Amino acid sequence: MDRGESWTRREFLRRTAQAAALLGLAGRAFPARASAIGPVPGTEGFHWRSVSVRHVAELRDWMDKLDREGRLSADKTWRGIIGSFQYALPPGMADTGSLVVMSLPLANAAITFRIAGRSRRVWVPSGYADDGRGLDDFRGLLYAAGIAAAADDLPRARLPLKQLAVRSGLAAYGRNNIAYVEGFGSFHQLLAFYCRRPLEDHWGPLRMLPECKGCSVCLRECPTGAIRRQDFVIDPARCLTLYNELPAPIPSWVPATAHNALVGCLKCQLRCPANEEVQARTVDLGEVPEGETAALLAGRIDGSLERVLKKRLSRVSGGDDLAYIARNLKLLLAGAGPEPGPRP
Ligand code: B12
Ligand code: SF4
Ligand code: SF4
Known about the structure:
- There is one protein chain.
- The protein is an alpha+beta fold.
- It has two domains: 5-106 and 131-209, no CATH class; 212-335, no CATH class.
- The protein is built from eleven helices and nine strands.
- The strands form three sheets. Strands 1-2-3-8 form a four-stranded antiparallel beta sheet, with helices on one face. The chain has a three-stranded mixed beta sheet with strand order 5-4-9, covered by helices on one side. It has a two-stranded antiparallel sheet with strand order 6-7.
- A hairpin with a 2-residue loop joins strand 4 (109-115) and strand 5.
- The chain binds cobalamin and iron/sulfur cluster (2 copies).
- Residues 174-176, 209, 211-212, 215-218, 272-274 line the site of one iron/sulfur cluster.
């Protein structure tokens, strides 16, 4: 895969310092907040690509085409999320402007619960553990690197980010419909900002990850049949993540053995050959003592315990809703899902 604008940490620091000096930004606090789980060792920095804003309508056209062909799910929750994309350009954005799509490396994490004298490690997939960074930190990266001018407010682009990343040449689609970026595999976060500056237009066709040719590991691993043999587009209504991120009851057709993480699912990524080299970077989120685990599981959450638990679980997005975390943990324990460890 073409690496595009990819930086090692040393190069990243050199170029950002240079750009900051050029822009008169030297001394700017960046990143603005300390990271709670820290950068992924060896993969600090980010990858990015730009396309012209003139292509935004083409992102929507592709979605509409899939819909007309009957390839998109009718699931209401999923439709609600997809319906929130905003294809109109932000106010005042000229068609000479650009979209900058960023990929930031993430690590999977593990949290340990003490239960009945034993330690039970549980996966917290990449993207759910809060690393302490916010949108302004990411904008800060673009300013400091000289990609965007300091005067540009960089409105966030609420668009289908995987499609955008693949069209820009930054990523390629895996058969699991997750976007893979060289050096990060599937474990990274995508973000996009509108930028008023005309940047190089990398727009191109959708690409599949070369490793997917002849491979069906994710298709076999998916515990709920969301990845389809007959259609590249997955069925989101069969994806465990659509349900376990929400407090609503998990549908009864989901097998008891499907649950494998405190929230989300890692099954289609863990054994993926394209993740082989990037997968060993699990971050430890510490241990929840026996008393707190027992109370969480029993739903006996009084005021002081709630404060302690929220503090521990605040690194899990949505960690303030302890009821759904408790439900997921119970399901995981009952189904004897896999424990975090070396690549299976
Ligand atoms: C809706 C959504 C979900 C829904 C539905 C997923 C889905 N596939 O639609 C649910 C809640 C289930 C979900 C789950 C997950 N999600 Co999610 N999700 C999103 C969201 C908001 C939109 C995704 C979207 O556009 N779906 C619409 C479908 C139609 O598009 P698509 O999935 O890109 O599919 C394309 C291909 O099928 C392609 N296509 C069709 N035919 C063909 C043929 C060929 C040959 C090729 C190459 C392509 C191709 O066309 C489609 C459109 O381009 C994005 C954030 C964002 N703003 O984009 C995050 C996002 C995609 N999610 C993310 C993550 C991490 C996940 C999970 C891994 C979380 C977890 N650990 O459990 C799982 C993975 C599930 C999976 N296998 O896709 C990350 C992905 C980062 C990455 N590395 O790609 C995103 C980008 C969030 C972020 N900001 O980082 N997610
Ligand atoms: S498991 Fe195989 S088919 Fe699935 S995304 Fe990875 S390389 Fe592609
Ligand atoms: S996240 Fe889990 S349920 Fe969803 S497609 Fe991947 S393996 Fe299947």
